[in-house]
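Lab meeting notes turned into a lecture example. A postdoc, R.K., suggested we walk through two folding results consecutively so the class can see how the record format repeats. The first protein's sequence and structure tokens come next.
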Amino acid sequence: MASIEDLIDPDVRVNFTPERGEQLAMIGPDMTAARARWAELLVAWRLILPGFDGREEASTVPGLAGNPDVPVHIYTPDRAEFPDAVMIWVHGGGYVMGTADDPFVFRYTPLMKVISVDYRMAPEHRSPAAVLDTCAVIEWVAANAGPMGIDPAKIILGGPSGGGGVAAGAALMNRDRGGPALLYQMLIYPMIDDRHHTPSGHLDLPAYCWTREVSLRAWSMYVEAEGEPSCYAAAARAEDVTGLPSAYIMAGDLDLFRDEDVAYANRLIGAGIRVDLAVFPGAPHGFDLVAPEAPVSRRAIAHQLDCLRQVLSR
């Protein structure tokens, strides 16, 4: 029987180096080192990712009542297919790493403006801090849509991995708060279930992948300190998914999160919510970020952009 490593697309596997496993092993034991390594990777990724023609601006958005202001990074393209649309981007990093100054947004800037949220991260700030910060940005964008040239009916919320988890939690909280309508939630292999009770949650993944052990450590730092985790921390725990925006949900077939992401998509579909669902073969967690030039990654990125175009063209 083939090992998981043998099943990984070879054009993807070449970019999943042992050094990546060393960085993931730091999550929990040494967050300072893990974050420093993440920052180094972002510098390297900037050299191989598509560039950005436009204006980058660091700014601050008022926080919700009782919460601090939220730093954001605003990317305004010189030209965009949908200049009146905006994506509120929630960066990845397993809830514990990452930055709003995120080069991965450049794949979306040909379509629209992107406002990236520098949300409070664990372990310094547990749930629901990140979701509260994201909801503050949602409300600020809707309130200031006119001056920014944005159609308030074209607000998209999205992110990968932990950022996808924050986005899913924020969509739930925004609904429960009676917040602004969102056109679409773009959940790219979202980290939404702290239990990992599914078959994919027990995959014997190589150390350079996002493994069950690493994931459970990250979850332990992120969820609320007392009681059962809320649906704002782990969206898969939501008892009611009605009234949520249409969604894009994507995972690889070798992703720890595969089954929980597909199950969440099925719950949304069952609630009458329109869902674009995709599972890509030979693909571990983060494949399109780590190996963006691999053919399977190109297909995944093209699929994301095609679905966004369809949603924004309706």
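The second example is placed directly after the first for contrast:
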Amino acid sequence: MDTRSEVREFLSTRRARLTPDQAGLPAYGGNRRVPGLRREEVSLLAGVSVDYYTRLERGDLSGVSDSVLEALARALQLDDAETAHLFDLSRAANASPIARKPRKKAQSIRPSIQRLLDAMTGAPALVRNNYFEYLGANTLGRALYAPVFTEPVPNSARFAFLNPAAQDFYVDWEQVTQDLVAAMRGEAGRNPYDRRFSDLVGELSTRSERFRTLWAAHNVRYHRSGVKRLRHPIVGELEIVYEAFELPADPGLHLSTYTAEPGTPSEEKLKMLASWAATDADQASTKTEA
């Protein structure tokens, strides 16, 4: 990916969304030519010259210090995910040719991780890589995400944007796609020279107008915990809480678990799904043995 372009568009979109009132600045004049802050207003808030900030917003982060990046983050009111993204872009802009090589990532899950997944019988659990492919799951995880696992290589991004079934499966499809692209933006900042990831972005940009629109917004968000509402083909609509964890020993892999609030209809539906999945697995095992 073009790092200068990424920097330019990220900073300009962050500046455009912030009004003088939000920044605590007086709004002089009734006809402002920009939707958000002017460059000179950002430079004032960040404590740098207008020329220097202009250079940064044109995509040139060469030699920029951490203190300046922190000042920019405060001036533009960036949250934790956006601030981390800005620092990632800076590292990419100042990286040596050797450092620009894609980071090594785990290509499969280790047997011990699969055993961990299988031991989690009461909660759906899945492991994905940085390309948003599901590399492993327990029985209940596969059952919960059955529509996604119909593909030979289940990929949450391709499913969400390219499979018509996604809009029925995700009750809040619009929010899900926003969160997904925001997570992908963060990944692009951490690994800007990963050709495989760039190819995935290119494919989705070519085939999905929704993805193109969201990608152009340059929003970045952590995808660590929250609530999802799914419309499952077996048990119907259910609301579940997800938690996502990185696997430090396996670079690029993330474990996600799903639970329902105790005493809710969703908890009962999750138990029904677990029973159905266990029965289905037993039947499949019997057929295989026969």
